[in-house]
Amino acid sequence: VNNPIPSNLKSEAKKAAKILREFTEITSRNGPDKIIPAHVIAKAKGLAILSVIKAGFLVTARGGSGVVLARLPDGKWSAPSAIGIAGLGGGFEVGIEVSDLVIILNYDRAVEAFAKGGNLTLGGNFTVAVGPLGRNLEGNVALRSSAAVFTYCKSRGLFAGVSLEGSCLIERKDTNRKFYCRDVRAYDLLFGEAPRPAQADELYEVLDSFTAKYERDGQRANARRAARERRRAAATDVPPTPTPGPQPPP
């Protein structure tokens, strides 16, 4: 689990690349059924990657930091915008928990809502669901869900899980201004008005690998489908074996 204390955008992008690897690489802790499928990220319209601390006694408070990116019309990822997360909750939860989160924005309207307003409240108008897991999960399984947002969480602490309903993603304007050396809105960053910074190359390499893997998996699936069709066509083209007629008497 990574440091949830807000930092500069270069450090946040580096942290995001590390978190994304931890959610997607098979390790001794992560089996093939415990990773984010490549197609979920390859088809995402945007994503937020954060570290969050949650503490509470009857009332819980949540805060943390990370980055958000959007997919541009040419298929590439936008420049990152620094974000924070904040939220309050109730219930009988006691303890402290630090979590790493990957939040998948499945629809353009979720990206637009954050970009235009500088914040996005999870839940309400945007349904939130736990994202699908598994390396071999078929791509169309996740797409059957109508959830605007998928969430993935890794945590250590006393809480059994994390609920992001009612939490708000917030634009960190000062952090963006210091990194880009000018006043820049999240809208401009997420809609391609700023070039991709070299300081985030490590994050882009991880993200681009999902698109490449998704395309390779699609090519293999198409090849298998074509092979099945050829075998089926070949089977129907085989002429029937003639039935032998009656044999003449010796």
Model description:
By secondary structure, the protein is α+β, with helices and mostly antiparallel strands. The protein has one domain (about 10-235). Helix content is about 35%, strand content about 25%. The chain is built from seven helices and eight strands; from the N terminus they run H-H-E-E-E-E-H-E-E-H-E-E-H-H-H. The chain has helices spanning about 10-25, 40, 110-115, 140-145, 175-180, 185-190, 200-235; strands spanning about 45-55, 60-70, 80-90, 95-105, 120, 130, 150-155, 170. An eight-stranded mixed beta sheet has the order 5-8-3-2-1-4-7-6. Strand 6 (about 130), helix 4 (about 140-145) and strand 7 form a beta-alpha-beta unit. Helix 1 (about 10-25) packs parallel to helix 7 (about 200-235). The longest helix has about 35 residues, at about 200-235. The protein is elongated and about 105 Å long. Mean pLDDT is about 75; it is low at about 135-145 and about 155-160. This is Sh3 domain YSC-like 1. GO terms for molecular function: phosphatidylinositol binding. Pfam families: Ysc84 (PF04366).
Structural features:
250 residues, phosphatidylinositol binding, alpha+beta, Ysc84_actin-binding
Shape: elongated
Structural class: alpha+beta
- Domain count: the total is 1
The helix fraction, in percent, is 25-40%
Widest sheet, order of strands: 5-8-3-2-1-4-7-6
In DSSP terms (H or I, runs of 4 or more residues), the helix count works out at 7
Largest sheet: 8 strands, mixed
Distance separating the two termini: 89 Å
Low-confidence parts: 136-144, 157-161
- Along the chain, the helix and strand elements come as HHEEEEHEEHEEHHH
Number of E-type strands: 8
Biased composition (Pro residues): 239-250
GO molecular function: phosphatidylinositol binding
Organism: Mustela putorius furo (European domestic ferret)
GO biological process, one term: regulation of ruffle assembly
